[in-house]
């Protein structure tokens, strides 16, 4: 009898393959004494393990795809820096010499000391960094034990075509899975926006996370199937079910093969409605993907990446150079630059972390709040954006607005910067459109007021859903409650779209929901006409758009609005999406 397990699908894909139960090695550490005359040899053994660990991470760093978000590279870079820090490169050696003990025990002793320090911190962001300590220490411990790549033992062919079954998966392991040709992976832990999930999407690896007690039901080497779009793992499949899944695989392959033909086709619905498809970008490599997909422009350029590439806030000139380069690479296509959105899970040393530690960083000093509190941070960025505006069709967007007063304050600062540039005879686009992100429920509820002062709105669904439902999307204990189809979320989206229509300004959506095939027709029916997404999703969204009728979808919206639960909405989506 077929066993069906459900989790969170993080990439689209249908996979059939044999299960490989994967264990990230957690070496058992024993303490023993080293004779004095051999302590130097033990130190050398430890230093060689550190060097090998750094070499492994350098190799992994080189294999990160250009399309991967900057946080992934930063994650690996952090681990490399930890290996070089004296906390791991010197303190364990001092301990070995003082206590004449083995390297494994000295490293474990230092690991326990570091973890204790992190666990005592009040700041959840800093407290979570203990996981980085464990990742790095486990890598070195594995090398001290000469067990290789933390559970990835064997030839590259050994995992080719396999479906990895794991308790958890790190970004480094995700990259190694890709290099070994795995068909997909399933993990007991993790969320839709975990590092491994983000990387799996960038690498195109079908993956499902958050399948609790997974390893109780899946056996090594048994044939299983993954439907990562629906977040479903099927074990003990009969022949008829496997044949059905294989037929769906073939249909999906044919659809993907036809996507390239859509690159130069306008995104016009069956009933003649023009839809604008934009790309979210972080690096200039993303722009290559944007052009390859035939996107209409950049709907979200995240300026945090400029800040996260160095130590502290970059200079005005460094920002100007980066923004101008992105605008010029867009080849006259519109570019929407979001002002700095640091805080919560995105931190930069020396920026915005002064004063008392926030009890809840997600609700604290971040994004526009941080910029208004520290004009010395905001002014150089505004000057850089305005100076770059003469090189293309640039639009400026303010994140995390919660009240009109802070919007007006930000607009006044923009006007002040414009006046300074005029006085200095520095050219800029005096009519640069200014927009605001609607990602806080208060802003959606007051969207009419924001629309009166802005040239465009953009719905940031990642935070809007999180704040509306009081669900941390990175917390695996509650992320199953993170539901884009929740009726309350749809009401807020609908209110924002209507506010834009009333004010005669465009409304875009730049959150993950805008690139999720499951919600495209729903959003079309609700009146959304501008979608901004990961450039990899653009062709698939275009396919859905050109095969949809807005008039027919609009007629179905009364049923959606009457739905009282997320499950009812999801059932309606199954009907709306019957042919995609």
For the largest beta sheet, what order do the strands appear in spatially? 1-8-7-3-4-5-6-2
Estimate the global geometry from the Cα principal axes.
globular
Highest-level CATH class of the largest domain: Alpha Beta
Say how many strands there are: 16
Q: How widely separated are the two ends?
A: 29 Å
CATH architecture of the largest domain: Alpha-Beta Barrel
> What's the overall average pLDDT, rounded?
87
What fold name goes in the CATH topology slot of the largest domain?
TIM Barrel
Structural class: alpha/beta
Radius of gyration, in angstroms, nearest whole number: 25 Å
Instruction: Note poorly predicted spans.
Output: 147-157, 344-350
Instruction: Tell me the number of helical segments per DSSP (H or I, 4 or more residues long).
Output: 24
Into which percentage range does the β-strand content fall? 5-15%
Largest sheet: 8 strands, mixed
Supply the number of structural domains. Answer: 3
Give helix % range.
40-55%
| The named CATH superfamily of the largest domain | Phosphoenolpyruvate-binding domains
